[in-house]
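Lay summary. Proteins are chains of building blocks that fold into shapes, and those shapes determine what they do. In this project we predict the shape from the chain. Here is one chain we studied, written as its sequence of building blocks.
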Amino acid sequence: MSRPWDVIVVGAGAAGLLAAIRAAELGRRTLLIEKNRKPGVKILMSGGTRCNLTHATDKWGILEAFGEQGRFLHSALAALGPADLVELFEAEGVATKVESTGKVFPVSDKATDVLHALRQRLARSGAEFALGEPVVDVTGVEGEFVVHTPVRQFPASRVLITSGGQSYPGCGTTGDGYAWAKRFGHTIIPPRPALAPLTSSAAWVHELRGVTIPDVLVRLHERSGDGESPPKPLTQRRGSFLFTHFGLSGPAPMDVSRAVTGHRCPSSLILTCDFLPDASQDELLARVQKEAATAGKRQILGAVSTWLPRRLAESLFWQAGIPLDRRGAELSRVERRALVEAVKATPIPVDGTLGFKKAEVTAGGVTLDEIDSRTMQSKLVPGLFFAGEVLDLDGPIGGYNFQSAFSTGWLAGGSSGA
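And here is the predicted shape, written in a compact code that computers can read:
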């Protein structure tokens, strides 16, 4: 075997690239190993090939977005917060912009620019690459590790596992790191898809494929008995919403998918949709009454179609039991209330999700209790570090997961020689 490396980073995604950069810039002899022929495959796919780098917030906004898991990220975000990350990329020539949703993208809308910046800084750092070389095992004890590939073995004093989760397995993220972590004694929280599109068997949902609504409040419930009010939501999210041939996609439905995949019986769930969340039921009822009074002989569907896409409005009329040609003057009190109910609380049955193949992130992974959040080092095996999606960390859509990966990678790389 060759002379031991100070640091070997396994996996050249967002966490691995920054971990290798940081370790090498601090003077450690660093090797970054990646199974794909090119690094950052998932970076190139993310955000519709635009790469949503982070969210326009501060450390506390990121922590809040991750809920209970957020506590683990304090030190990582102190080392590299959202503003620091933006500054890092802009220093490499990647100008950024903030969209109305708070998502931060490169001005160019090109994920290739993000990856080029990372490769550029990695090259300056002095870290070395081993591309197209899958790691098959990681063995060793404190200070004496060996990283095994099909063709050779690499000794190292420190090993950083940044091999990702199981989302988008076509990118090479097939959960390899879980087995290595488990052999070192770590507990693996069962991985499951998160930020995945939802499936539904409702035919009317499929008929609306292609219809997009920019702002919908969705609430996930367990199905109640006939005539009962829906129980307290398991979770809720607000954002854009897309009907598809298989069910639902877009930020709002995908953000609740974590609760779907974590439920004991996903097919027992319903998604209640409020298609006009800025108006209360009483406000919307008053609006409908006003439109009905002024419409006269005109069809009330025309007015509702100015609030919502025409195809969705027609479907809601059908669900409310209102004829599409109903004139404003003919709209009864019962129909007005039924229409408001359809707009504000349409239930959609949920079957499940499209799984890891279409999930943007993985929920589950190496349990956080066994990792020192101040360094990203294993509490069980000194010299072994974890960062990024291999950990049991997953946040909502909006750049939060990339921020987590970049920050934990940066902290791990900076701690790997301490």
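What the prediction tells us: The chain is about 35% helix and 25% strand.
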